[in-house]
């Protein structure tokens, strides 16, 4: 960004390492799901259902968020004793009820639409992971990032004034997309050709 405080030096080593660890956990999750799909294809006749894998992932995500609420509330700057008040106000905003309805435009339709789109996106990635590999699924997920950011720059309802993308982001998105296209267009060596080349 244009602000010098948003640099790697300004972020500090702790937050940089925390971001790296979070991506490592996400990568391990994708690889583990690929192993589950491959193992289920060998042991089970029809394989494992996508909705089962997605439901278990969502259930454990909700469980660990609940277990980490004391830590997360401190990280957010919310006293843990006041967390029920925030949850109550959040539920009222989600249902568009009470005095908070003035600041909750689009609820509950927009939050429900987000949930449906998020579920569809996750299940699509799981299907792609099931029929291909963890690398292809990760690349598809990476490709969706610049598209999502671009969509949010459009004059959509409830977003207010559309923001413009900085030059650095556009350049980074172009490099990212070009790298994905080069990777996808690069032919992979078949096992027979690899064996013949090693024999020569």
Automatic annotation (TrEMBL):
<dbReference type="Pfam" id="PF08627">
    <property type="entry name" value="CRT-like"/>
</dbReference>
<keyword id="KW-0813">Transport</keyword>
<comment type="similarity">
    <text>Belongs to the CRT-like transporter family.</text>
</comment>
<feature type="transmembrane region" description="Helical">
    <location>
        <begin position="109"/>
        <end position="129"/>
    </location>
</feature>
<keyword id="KW-0472">Membrane</keyword>
<feature type="transmembrane region" description="Helical">
    <location>
        <begin position="12"/>
        <end position="32"/>
    </location>
</feature>
<feature type="transmembrane region" description="Helical">
    <location>
        <begin position="134"/>
        <end position="152"/>
    </location>
</feature>
<protein>
    <recommendedName>
        <fullName>EamA domain-containing protein</fullName>
    </recommendedName>
</protein>
<feature type="transmembrane region" description="Helical">
    <location>
        <begin position="158"/>
        <end position="183"/>
    </location>
</feature>
<dbReference type="GO" id="GO:0016020">
    <property type="term" value="C:membrane"/>
</dbReference>
<keyword id="KW-0812">Transmembrane</keyword>
<dbReference type="InterPro" id="IPR013936">
    <property type="entry name" value="CRT-like"/>
</dbReference>
<keyword id="KW-1133">Transmembrane helix</keyword>
<feature type="transmembrane region" description="Helical">
    <location>
        <begin position="53"/>
        <end position="72"/>
    </location>
</feature>
């Amino acid at each position: 960004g244009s602000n010098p405080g948003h640099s790697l030096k300004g972020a500090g080593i702790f937050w940089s390492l925390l971001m790296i660890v979070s991506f490592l956990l996400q990568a391990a999750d994708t690889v583990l799901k690929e192993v589950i799909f491959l193992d289920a294809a060998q042991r089970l006749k029809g394989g494992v259902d996508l909705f089962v894998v997605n439901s278990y992932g969502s259930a454990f995500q909700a469980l660990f968020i609940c277990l980490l609420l004391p830590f997360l509330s401190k990280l957010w700057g919310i006293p843990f004793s006041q967390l029920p008040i925030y949850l109550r106000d959040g539920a009222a905003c989600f249902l568009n009820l009470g005095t908070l309805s003035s600041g909750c435009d689009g609820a509950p339709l927009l939050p429900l639409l987000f949930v449906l789109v998020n579920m569809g996106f996750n299940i699509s990635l799981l299907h792609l992971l099931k029929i291909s590999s963890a690398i292809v699924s990760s690349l598809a997920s990476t490709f969706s990032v610049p598209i999502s950011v671009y969509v949010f720059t459009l004059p959509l309802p409830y977003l207010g004034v559309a923001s413009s993308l900085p030059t650095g982001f556009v350049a980074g998105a172009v490099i990212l997309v070009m790298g994905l296209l080069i990777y996808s267009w690069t032919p992979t060596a078949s096992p027979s050709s690899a064996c013949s080349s090693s024999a020569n």
